Amino acid sequence: LGKVESYIHEKLKNEKLHFVLLDPDDVTPEEAARIAEMSEEIGVDAIMIGGSTGAEGDVLDGVVRAIKKSSSLPTILFPGSHGGISKHADAIFFMSLLNSTNPFFITGSQALGAFTVKRYGIEPIPMAYLIVEPGETVGWVGDAKPIPRHKPKIAAAYALAGQYLGMRLVYLEAGSGAPQPVPPEMIALVKRVIDVPLIVGGGIRTGEQARAAVRAGADIIVTGTAIEKAGSLGKAREKLVELNRGIKG
Ligand code: 1GP
């Protein structure tokens, strides 16, 4: 395993993890730098960088570089397509949107990005990416057939298929800004079925919701909107502390 993946597995032996997602389309490099710095102080485990719209090119590079300068947390790309690759990042979730109806998001974009990842020496971490209702922007952009919220078995079947295809992480995604996070019953069933770490994100805004996801079986919680849209850096810090407490207990 690569450096970042080993770091994740090492940490998971002792605690559940909190990854903060920054979307270069929503935050300036300066804001991203401050949030990453605070995240490290508070005990967040990694910074993810990406988004479905506009997180590319100079805008993406600028945010990744600012984060690298202000914190020593691992930086993991969370690309919406092969456009979401930056040479400044440590690793990339090399993900396949397994429940997309469009092969571009399952294997096409991956093929277009593969040589870029190799050329830049970015650590690829293979990940099954599953979109659960409502799916929000990423569900729409990714031509997903979102998994119904009351059908945990469908999520578990896709998750296990992802593991059998060789993917080393499974991500259950309700969509950024979703009104409700992935239901605990769905997290619990997926966790029971798979052996690889389970990431959960989308719509987690409170420490209580983060705790509920961890109790249900999530290994890694991703939070984005709650911190990006906190209103001020002071409020972002309070939110980070609240969410981190929910996750770490
Ligand atoms: C989105 O799961 C992540 O891809 C985070 O979602 O912005 O709702 O925290 P939020």
Walk me through this protein's architecture.
- With 249 residues, this protein is of the alpha/beta class.
- Helices cover 46% and strands 17% of the residues.
- Strands 1-2-3-4-5-6-7-8 form an eight-stranded parallel barrel, surrounded by eight helices.
- Strand 2, helix 3 and strand 3 form a beta-alpha-beta unit.
Order of neighbouring strands in the sheet with most strands: 1-2-3-4-5-6-7-8
For the report, how would you describe the main beta sheet?
8 strands, parallel, barrel
The top-level CATH class is Alpha Beta
The CATH superfamily title:
FMN-linked oxidoreductases
Number of helices: 10
User: What is the strand tally?
Assistant: 8
Domain count: 1
Give the gist of this structure:
The protein is α/β, with parallel strands linked by helices.
Which properties best describe this structure?
17% strand, TIM Barrel, eight-stranded parallel beta barrel, single chain, globular, 46% helix, 249 residues, alpha/beta, binds SN-glycerol-1-phosphate
Topology record:
Layout: H1 3-12, E1 17-22, H2 29-42, E2 46-49, H3 57-70, E3 75-77, E4 91-97, H4 103-120, E5 123-131, H5 136-141, H6 152-164, E6 169-173, H7 184-193, E7 198-201, H8 207-216, E8 220-223, H9 225-228, H10 233-248
Parallel strand pairs: 1-2, 1-8, 2-3, 3-4, 4-5, 5-6, 6-7, 7-8
Helix pairs in contact: 2-3, 2-10, 6-7, 7-8, 8-10
The chain binds SN-glycerol-1-phosphate.
